[in-house]
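Worked example 3 (structure in, sequence out).
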């Protein structure tokens, strides 16, 4: 074995405590180089005691550069009759350190390189010249008996519709490695892995699809294939590489027109982070500009928060914006799907999954952009899905966080004025995006983000009671009250900017022009 593979890395994990058990290392390796690195770690750390426990290394399907890997050796290990300790191992690659942090930059994209996932040749070069960018990651080990029990519990009574034990163990190993790697990379890279397979293999999902197929009079296989396509159409597919690149791109974009800094209270943002560690959090921002989601995402990113799972209209899924924002947290929803029961079923289970796993969500409670600056009446669709998930016991509580995003001047105003004059709304496309970038070539002042008082569903609706049959009229009324309360709290949090005050004075004068002195007099009582 070459010396570069045998040498130890910074911060290597310790050999797991086996308590007398045989140990099986589950290797998540995307290349032969990674497999040899993990085997070298085992050789370095294996206890020298001749009576030390037996161990073996078993390959599982890799999460990067995914390909089929036979699970025959894992199945044999699980069928051996003893109770081995299963310990996941992985190699993680990091970007070059710049300014005290390791994050991908736009130059990585220009070189067509993902620093989180280097190819086999680049892996060998990094081991020779930049070993600080490589780490050995060890997931939390677990006895086979414990995993077998969890597999049986997850199957419920529907054993035929559940993946096999070996597949379940491999998936649990991947999730344990994701948690361990997140501790190295930071919370901003908390992203769902194996989401598509997780949802499709859930007994409740597959049982619900079978029932839906009977109701529709369609073959179950066709309904399952349609559900799988719908889930891929909807779901966000986070990539740490793209998350970093999009954050750099957002900063380059908004600073063209709005200055270097966003104006918000970091202490308020940290409070929401504390809430998200206990319960799922839903951010509900106001919507005045196409920049709203981008600047809010950047505020989260620069404070080390993971990107929200943001509901976006399918109209924004155009190249190259669609693929980029999907990989940085946006999931796309069709404008209308009331006549598509399979799509509604899939969206419901997708939201259930995000709530249950405590991923933060985001969407605009108004539905679309306000052209007047005033909040539009709230839309209830996505909120209804989250409230329904809470009522069915997917979470003990869900916290709604109203967010106000205000601008000194909105760069969309010219577009809004044209629409008021009878021009059609511009269709979102690549050329539309280029025009947006060009409009940001002049100065528009600052951007202000404020957080309203959080709203707890447990306090607003009472404890969830999944076994009871709710009254539809009461549910509808409670949903409307929630939505309007969120809007009230957004209004309370909205800052009064200097431009807002000047506009107030001008509107109050009717059609008459005002001098600077007259504007000051008109506002004197308000200041």
């Amino acid at each position: 074995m070459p010396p570069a593979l045998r040498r130890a890395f910074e911060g290597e994990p310790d050999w797991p405590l086996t308590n007398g058990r045989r140990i099986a290392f589950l290797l998540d390796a995307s290349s032969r180089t990674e497999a040899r690195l993990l085997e070298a770690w085992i050789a370095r750390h294996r206890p020298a005691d001749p009576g030390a426990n037996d161990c073996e290394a078993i390959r599982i399907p890799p999460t990067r550069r995914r390909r089929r890997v036979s699970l025959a050796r894992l199945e044999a290990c699980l069928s051996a009759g003893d109770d081995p300790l299963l310990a996941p191992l992985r190699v993680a690659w990091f970007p070059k350190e710049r300014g005290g942090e390791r994050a991908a930059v736009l130059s990585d994209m220009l070189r067509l390189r993902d620093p989180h996932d280097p190819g086999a040749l680049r892996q060998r070069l990094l081991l020779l010249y930049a070993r600080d960018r490589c780490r050995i990651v060890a997931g939390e080990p677990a006895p086979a008996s414990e995993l077998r029990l969890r597999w049986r519990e997850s199957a419920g009574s529907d054993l035929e519709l559940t993946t096999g034990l070996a597949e379940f163990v491999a998936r649990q190993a991947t999730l344990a490695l994701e948690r361990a790697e997140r501790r190295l990379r930071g919370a901003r890279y908390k992203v769902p892995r194996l989401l598509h397979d997780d949802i499709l293999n859930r007994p409740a999902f597959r049982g619900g699809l079978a029932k839906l197929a009977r109701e529709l009079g369609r073959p179950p296989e066709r309904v399952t294939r349609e559900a799988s396509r719908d889930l891929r159409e909807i779901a966000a597919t986070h990539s740490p590489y793209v998350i970093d690149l999009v954050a750099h791109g957002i900063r380059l974009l908004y600073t063209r027109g709005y200055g270097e800094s966003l104006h918000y209270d970091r202490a308020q943002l940290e409070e929401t982070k504390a809430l998200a560690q206990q319960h799922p959090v839903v951010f509900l921002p106001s919507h005045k500009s196409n920049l709203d989601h981008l600047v809010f995402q950047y505020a989260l990113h620069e404070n080390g928060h993971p990107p929200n799972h943001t509901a976006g209209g399918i109209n924004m899924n155009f190249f190259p914006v669609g693929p980029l924002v999907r990989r940085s947290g946006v999931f796309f929803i069709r404008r209308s799907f009331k006549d598509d029961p399979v799509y509604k079923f899939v969206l419901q289970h997708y939201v259930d999954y995000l709530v249950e796993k405590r991923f933060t969500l985001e969407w605009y409670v108004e539905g679309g952009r306000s052209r007047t600056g005033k909040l539009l009446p709230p839309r209830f669709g996505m909120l209804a899905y989250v409230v329904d998930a809470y009522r069915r016991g997917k979470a003990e509580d869900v916290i709604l966080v109203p967010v106000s995003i205000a601008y000194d001047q909105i760069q969309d105003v010219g577009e809004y004025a044209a629409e008021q004059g009878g021009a059609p709304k511009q269709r979102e496309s690549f050329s539309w995006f280029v025009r947006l970038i060009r409009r940001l070539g002049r100065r528009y002042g600052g951007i202000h983000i404020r957080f309203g008082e959080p709203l707890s569903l447990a306090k607003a609706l009472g404890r969830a009671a999944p076994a009871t049959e709710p009254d539809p009229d009461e549910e509808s009324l409670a949903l409307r009250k929630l939505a309007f309360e969120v809007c009230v709290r957004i209004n309370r949090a909205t800052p009064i900017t200097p431009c807002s005050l000047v506009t107030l004075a001008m509107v109050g004068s009717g059609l008459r022009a005002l001098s600077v002195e007259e504007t000051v007099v008109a506002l004197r009582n308000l200041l």
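Notes: The chain is about 45% helix and 10% strand. Confidence is low (pLDDT under 50) at residues 157-162.
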